Amino acid sequence: MSEGELSGKVALITGASRGIGAAIAERFAASGATVVVTARTVDPAASKLAGTIHETVERISESGGTAVAIAADLSKVGERERLVAETVEHVGTIDVLVNNAAVTYFIPVIGFGAKQFQLMFEVEVTAPFHLAQLVLPAMISKGEGWILNISSGAARHPTFPPDPARHGGGAVYGMCKAALERFSTGLASELYADNVAVNALSPNRVVPTPGTVFHHLVTGDPSQVVEPPEVMAEAALALCSVAPRSRTGRVAYSQDLLNELGITVNVAGSSESS
């Protein structure tokens, strides 16, 4: 691990108690990073969804990696500031920031409540913006850094007439992800001279996670084509482990990116370059 692509780097991964965030945390740790795992869930009984930040850290530790769990509610300004301060205190300045945390409601616009809207926008758009502001001074001072924002195919405009098979009530979710993608490319442009990479990453297919199962995006139909979380994790590593200016300002799709780079991922998460 000491010779991995991220050896000596500190990576902060939000929403890493389960699903894509946990997979990215584990992959980065396997590549030598010291990983800070953050999310709200510390008690299995406190969430409808499986997974806690401590369970992610335990898996990383059992595999020989280094990880620290710091609980934080990213909908709150003070919690975001505390998260970054504690990360720096415990493991050092942040080299890689992965904004993966999400709070998602699939509700049609006509019935979308103001509180749900504010919470969703705060976690999925404002928090990545604020966390970037908090970590950038150290990255710029070091002369390199990587910020990765996890997006979704929902950011793409729908086709017309609409596909009846698409999940309903996704307008606000798509709006948040589209904003995140535009923020990513805009920030990448601003930071190019500072040697800080900023990218957005989406899965090519729905990823079976506790969240997508809960929202019935994973149907259980054997004919449904899904994407293992390991694919997203490997694509995330590919965007955060190379010279910043060599891969920045991209809205990348995971499998497409890996195909471009000649990387194959097996179901266990290891990779091979062709």
Please describe what this structure looks like:
This protein is an alpha/beta fold. It has a single domain (10-273), classed as Rossmann fold. It contains eight helices and nine strands. The chain has helices at residues 19-30, 53-62, 77-91, 114-142, 171-191, 210-214, 229-240, 254-261, and strands at 10-14, 34-38, 66-69, 96-99, 145-150, 196-202, 251-253, 263-265, 271-273. The chain has a seven-stranded parallel β-sheet, sandwiched between helices. A two-stranded antiparallel sheet has the order 8-9. Helix 1 (19-30) runs parallel beside helix 2 (53-62), helix 4 runs parallel beside helix 5 (171-191) and helix 7 (229-240) crosses helix 8 (254-261). The longest helix is centred in the middle third of the chain and has 29 residues, at 114-142. The two termini are 22 Å apart.
Topology:
Blueprint (H helix, E strand, L loop, with lengths): L9 E5 L4 H12 L3 E5 L14 H10 L3 E4 L7 H15 L4 E4 L14 H29 L2 E6 L20 H21 L4 E7 L7 H5 L14 H12 L10 E3 H8 L1 E3 L5 E3 L1
Parallel strand pairs: 1-2, 1-4, 2-3, 4-5, 5-6, 6-7
Antiparallel strand pairs: 8-9
Helix pairs in contact: 1-2, 1-7, 3-4, 4-5, 7-8
**Count of individual domains:** 1
CATH architecture: 3-Layer(aba) Sandwich
CATH-defined superfamily: NAD(P)-binding Rossmann-like Domain
Element-by-element helix/strand order: EHEHEHEHEHEHHEHEE
Instruction: Quote the beta fraction.
Output: 5-15%
Q: What Rg do the Cα atoms give?
A: 18 Å
- Stretches where pLDDT falls below 50 for ≥5 residues? none
- CATH class label: Alpha Beta
Number of strands: 9
Report the CATH topology name: Rossmann fold
Across the major sheet, the strand order is: 3-2-1-4-5-6-7
- Main sheet specs: 7 strands, parallel
Shape verdict:
globular
The span between the termini is: 22 Å
